[in-house]
TrEMBL record:
SUPFAM superfamilies: DHH phosphoesterases. Residues 238-320 form the DHHA1 domain. Residues 19-161 form the DDH domain. It comes from Paenibacillus baimaensis. It comes from the Bacteria. Signal peptide: none annotated. InterPro entries: DDH_dom, DHH_sf, DHHA1_dom, Oligoribo/pAp-PDE_c-di-AMP_PDE. Pfam families: DHH, DHHA1. This is Bifunctional oligoribonuclease/PAP phosphatase NrnA.
Amino acid sequence: SYSVQLNEAAQFIQTKDDFLVVSHIQPDGDAAGSTFAVAWILSSLGKRFTLVNEGEMPKKYMYMAGSQQTILNYDADAIPLTYKYVISVDCADFSRIGRVNQLFAEDAAILNIDHHATNDLFGSVNLVLAEAAATVEVLYDLGKVLGISFSNELNICIYSGLLTDTGGFRYANTSPKVMQIAADMLQHGVKGHELAEHLLEKLSYPQISLIKRSLNTLTFDSSKRIGWLAVSLEDLQDSGASNDDLDGLVNYPRNVEGVEVGLLFKERAGGQVKVSLRSGGTVDVAHIAKSFGGGGHIRAAGCTVKGSLHEAIESVVKEVGLALE
Ligand code: 5GP
Ligand code: MN
Ligand code: MN
């Protein structure tokens, strides 16, 4: 049960030291918030740790890091060590960790903390709550079980993860518990409106330029129940945008009246296409994403498929069409 898992996870942290903390490739607000939340929790327990992600942590999330905390970028930093104790946050499966897994000792013990229904329980200890809106919600519970005092820094990480994974407290995962935790954070001085402006409202020039370009690609199937956008490598380059600037674009097709499934196709180097799937609830997009080697949640999922943008659109739209029948 969840309370047993919480106790096992607390014991993992209490009895060990010198952790490697990892999250998924191309971290979102919950992945970043969870990584830094674990750092604050470990700090308050006097534990040593190293934070690492396969790529660069987007600058917009770095306000959650303490001045003493650096997040290592696996691509740029040669880290010669291997770690015996790993804490993985917001990763539904081992492959989401990316090449950072090369830093794990062969017999590494992994604490897997997550909230994806498709989580395959790859950890030695698994703390996975599919009903949680975000991984930071699970970390809030873990912090309580550990009996730590919640610092303002930790509260900011938790609030940020809740805010981003619920789309600003709007998605179906916005449970009473989410609101209770958020209220607790606000009561302790977290500036919710400032975080919302920073994380959800503000657009950089590359972002708005990318939105302008990608809206030209908006397409619907004949039933108008599936809508999609496509972003090519050229679009990314010409707008000066980076991958994390694509966050939220998938909501444009998804939010159109009558659309059941919104899709975003993002061309990647090396002949691959990253697909974001969003459902109004009629179809389980995690199931569709899984059939392409990805995963996620019923209403929000993702996968990476081989081929051109055109090929990816053809195969994924076809599967979504079949699921809608
Ligand atoms: P996004 O479309 O924002 O990248 O991801 C939506 C949801 O699907 C997130 O919860 C994310 O964790 C999950 N997801 C995205 N891409 C993948 C993937 O390649 N594999 C798995 N297992 N989950 C993914
Ligand atoms: Mn995530
Ligand atoms: Mn998450």
